[in-house]
Amino acid sequence: MATAQGRIEFTDIVTVTEAAELAGCTPQHIRRLCDAGTIPAKKHGPQWIVSAAAAIALRGTLPRSLGAEKKSDRPAPRRRRK
């Protein structure tokens, strides 16, 4: 769990992909939040490790325009008949 100082405890870390699933958004959006320092995360080599609690807290709070919906979650567009 994230502490008051923004530190991440070892038992509370997930990958960017796992954080995106928990938050209900895309991995790219999670990376942008990490880069901006919006959520508790640390760089481990080339990859981010993210606070699972912070990712869960994001769920349902993100507007669709910020990656809150995966493309695969959208229904296929209807084709018009001629």
Structure write-up:
The protein has 82 residues and is an alpha+beta fold. The protein has a domain at 10-62: Arc Repressor Mutant, subunit A (Orthogonal Bundle), CATH 1.10.10. It has 3 helices and 3 strands. It has helices at 16-23, 27-36, 52-58, and strands at residues 13-15, 41-44, 47-51. A 3-stranded antiparallel β-sheet has the order 1-3-2. A hairpin with a 2-residue loop joins strand 2 (41-44) and strand 3. It is elongated, with a radius of gyration of 15 Å. The termini are far apart. The mean pLDDT is 77.
Topology:
Layout: E1 13-15, H1 16-23, H2 27-36, E2 41-44, E3 47-51, H3 52-58
Antiparallel strand pairs: 1-3, 2-3
Helix pairs in contact: 1-2, 1-3
Report, as a whole number of angstroms, the end-to-end distance: 56 Å
Any guess at the CATH architecture of the domain at 10-62?
A: Orthogonal Bundle
Q: Give the H and E element order.
A: EHHEEH
User: Can you tell me the CATH topology of the domain at 10-62?
Assistant: Arc Repressor Mutant, subunit A
Helix share, percent: 25-40%
**Shape summary:** elongated
Number of DSSP strand runs: 3
Mean pLDDT: 77
Low-confidence runs (pLDDT<50, min 5 residues)? none
Tell me the β content.
Answer: 5-15%
